[in-house]
């Protein structure tokens, strides 16, 4: 596969490093996961003292952002009772996460993967994910 149309391991390492830097800056250890264009895990890092339960959540936030090409925070707004995507979190064998912290990765106006962050409050997860994605 052409590197231009997919997230590489080098990209993933750079994205994770940027996320770690932001998490350190805000004082919240995080799990940071990067998936490729197909939603498959490329790399994951659990910072020291980050919640073990958030490993799965970070990976699935990245998966969700790629599967729907939408930030998980935006999907969450549309997944509330009475909204068009209510119940979507039950799809894909329960892998769909409707918490902030998953962001598609874009290169040349094309989605090439996603990053997922979990371990803090939603606004913290989102801030770390944004910093991580910006490193692409």
UniProtKB/TrEMBL annotation:
| Listed SUPFAM superfamilies | GlcG-like
Give the top-rank taxon of the lineage listed in the UniProt record for this protein: Bacteria
**InterPro entries to which the protein is assigned, alphabetical:** GlcG_carb_metab_protein, PduO/GlcC-like, PduO/GlcC-like_sf
* Protein name, entry field: PduO protein
The source organism is: Flexivirga endophytica
Fetch the Pfam families from UniProt: HbpS-like (PF03928)
């Amino acid at each position: 596969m052409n590197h231009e149309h997919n997230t590489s391991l080098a990209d993933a390492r750079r994205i994770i490093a940027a996320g770690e830097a932001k998490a350190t800056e805000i004082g919240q250890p995080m799990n940071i996961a990067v998936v490729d264009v197909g939603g498959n895990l490329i790399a994951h890092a659990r910072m020291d003292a980050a919640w073990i339960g958030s490993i799965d959540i970070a990976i699935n936030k990245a998966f969700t952002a790629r599967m729907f090409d939408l930030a998980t925070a935006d999907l969450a707004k549309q997944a509330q009772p009475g909204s068009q995507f209510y119940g979507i979190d039950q799809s894909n064998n329960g892998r769909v996460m409707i918490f902030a912290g998953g962001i598609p990765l874009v290169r040349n106006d094309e989605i090439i993967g996603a990053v997922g962050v979990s371990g803090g409050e939603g606004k913290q997860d989102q801030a770390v994910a944004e910093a991580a994605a910006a490193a692409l």
